[in-house]
Sequence to fold (167 residues):
Amino acid sequence: MKKLFFLIFTVLLISCGPSLNVKETKNDGKIVYEMENNYLFRENNKELIIAYQLNLKKEGNNYFFAFRYIDPDPLPEIGSGETFIIEINKEETIKLTGEGSEKYRGQWMGNNVETAYYPATLELIQKMINSEQDLFLTIIGQKSKMSMYFTSDNKKRFQAFLERYNK
Fold:
């Protein structure tokens, strides 16, 4: 009986898939879906919260990457221009241009928060999901530069977002 319970529990756990947290809002009459908490890096203890996230946002038929920085350290101050670099399978480098984060800076629970949006295409999102290796991402701020990996867990969350909202 214990083995049967364990087997059923394992199957249910596997079938749940990646956790997906999505915020739904409206902007100029369009429904906007924005993924949250797709962590690239996270350290969370009682004294310190540091997190970098790469989320997807869908507004109408348009997609965006939303890079979010949460840290007690000063903001990187992401400016406008080619500030987001994606390396796919160590063979292809894609540089994305954004408007910067100036309108999306603030405080949350004593931490500095900054978000920068970059236009995304379904083709690029699928290429990221289907890449064989982890992707290497770089965000270039005016005060600092950050690099991190986009792993299989991140890819699964992107895939789940597309399956649910790409209609």
About this structure: The helical segments are 2-15, 122-130, 152-165. The mean pLDDT is 86.
